[in-house]
Amino acid sequence: MIYVLLWWLIMQVLGWLALPTAMRLFRWLPDRGYAFSKAFGLLISSYLLWIGASTGLLRNDTGGILFALLALAGLSAWCYFRQPLGELQHYLRSKKGLIITVEILFALAFVAWAVLRAYASFKIESAGGEKFMEIAFLNAILRSEHFPPQDPWLSGFAISYYYFGYVMMALVTRFSGAPAGIAFDLYDSLLFALTLIGAFGVVYNLVKLSLHKE
Questions:
Q1: Verdict on whether the full-model pTM lies above 0.85
Q2: Which residue, 27, 62, 115, 191, shows the most beta carbons closer than 10 Å to its own?
């Protein structure tokens, strides 16, 4: 249960760090990108870590993750000060109902899917499934100082497969300290929760834009 709480807290941090940037990027949307801010924060921080570890400027470790988060915070600080004074505070007050709804949906979806995954007896197939390969990729990324990561199946070679999704999984895994097997289930739960609030954000914005046109 502690890892569920840690992952929820990490996503809250990523979401709030990315919010000013999301508000600037999605400024034409009625919700200003709030429903997408968590996914956006995870995407940008993981991309910065990937670029840094691929070029040799960063190491794929906790220090590299912290640098990526600081870079994300710096980008959001720049976006924040480019906005009119008090705009973020006004947004938070005026969209209080939306923010609470998104946060409740995210928390419920994340916890519910984590519980479902914990009690799913066939969540990792004994044969014919890809789950063992996915956990092997996660472990390979966690053990690689730079990118591309080491191939877990062929010693001395790099993974010749698209792996950025595993970088995102590894970022939260390393930051939370969760074992790979538990992190795999939590990432599955996280994807479900992010998809739910993303879908909610799409519908919310479409309805608001439609009512505004009328």
A1: yes
A2: 191
